[in-house]
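Long-time lurker. I teach an intro course on protein structure, and each term I like to show students one example going from raw sequence to a predicted 3D structure in C-alpha cell notation. This year I'd like something fresh instead of my usual example. Would anyone be willing to generate the C-alpha cells for the chain below so I can use it in lecture? Attribution to the forum is fine with me.
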Amino acid sequence: MTEGSITVDTGVEPVAQQKAPNNFLKLLRYTVIKLFTLFIAVAIGMYLTILIAQMGGYVDEIIKGQLRESISISVTLNPENKTLTAQQRADLIDSLVQVEIDRLGLDRPFIYRSFSFLGNALTLNLGRSQFMTSDSGSRLVKNIILERLPPTLLLMTTCNMLLFFISLFFALYLSRNYGNLIDKIVIGLSPTSSAPAWFYGIFLLLLFAAILGVLPFGGMVKAPPPDDTLQYALSLLRHMVLPVSAWLISGFFASVYGWRTFFLIFSMEDYVELARAKGLSAREVERRYVLRPTLPNIITTFALMLIGLWQGAIILETVFNWPGLGRLLYRAVGLYDSPVIIGSTVIYAYLLGVTVFLLDFIYALVDPRVRVGSGGPKA
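-- Reply from a regular --
Happy to contribute to a lecture. Here you go:
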C-alpha cells in the first residue's frame, strides 16, 4: 500500500496473460495427438499393404516354386550336368534353391518377416528389389523408384493441373449461367466420367494412332530419342497428347458438375443475395462470397491431387507404354516384387500423412472460423 492509493492483490492474472499459455498448450497437445494418431494410421496401412502384397505369406511359396522351376531348367540344360545321375541333379537343384531361399530371406517364417518389412518401411529402408532392376542395373528400390519418378510427375502433373484448373474455372462459368444449354450438356455428359481414363485411351489409340496414324501408339519419345533439345521436346509433347486427352475426357464432366453444384450452393446463400443487393459486382461477389468459403475444399482437393501424382495412373501408363511409376507398379505386381510395391506405398503413405497434418493448419489460415486444437469452429 502507498500513500494516496490502494493496491489490491487478487491473485488473478490478466485474461490476456492467461489465454496465451492456454492456447499454446492446447495447440501443442493437439499437434502431439494428431502426429501420434497419423503415425499409427500410417503404420497400420503399411502393415496391411505388406499382408496384401505378400498374400499373407503365400507369395513366398510362389517365389520358391518359380525359383525351383528356373533352377531346374538351367541345371537340366547345362551340358556340364549331363554326366550327373538323376539323384545328383536333384541334390544340385535342392542346394541351389536353398542358396537362393537363404539369399532372399525366405527361410524365416512370414510373420517375422512381415514385422521386419514394417520396421524397414517405417524407417524408409526400402531395401533391394527381388526381380527388377533400374536401367543403370541397380537393384535398390530407392534407385528404381527415383528413376521412374520424373516421367510420372511430368505426365500426371500435366494431366491433373489441366483438369483441376479447367474444371474449376468452367464450373464457375456454369454457376453464373445456371440452366443454359452448356450447363444441361455438362449434366447430361457427367455419367461418361464413370469410365476410367485408360478406357478412353484405348479408343483414342485406335482412332488417332491405328486408323489415322497422326499420333504415336505410346512411349515417351520416339526411338531413337532426338539429340536436339527442341526436337526432343516436340516429340515428348506429341507423345503426351493422347494420354493427357484420355485423362481429361475421363474426369472433366464429373469434376465440372461437382464444382458447379458446390458453387451453386454457396451462391444461393442469404449473405450472397445481400451482397448483390448492395450493388457489388458479380466478380467481387464471386471472389469474396463464393470462392472464399469454398477455399478449404479447393485446397484439400488440390493437396490430395498433388500427392496422388506420386503413384501415377497404373493402367493408363501401361496402356500408353509410359515409363513411369504406374507401369513400374504394374510390372512389380505381376512379378510379385513386394519390396517395390511396398516402397512406393510407403512413400505415398508418408506424403498423405504429412498432407493431412498440414491441412488442419492451412484451414485455420484461410478460414477465420477454424481454430486449430479448439475442437471445432470459433463461436
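Some talking points for your students: Confidence is low (pLDDT under 50) at residues 1-8. Strands lie at 370-371, 376-377.
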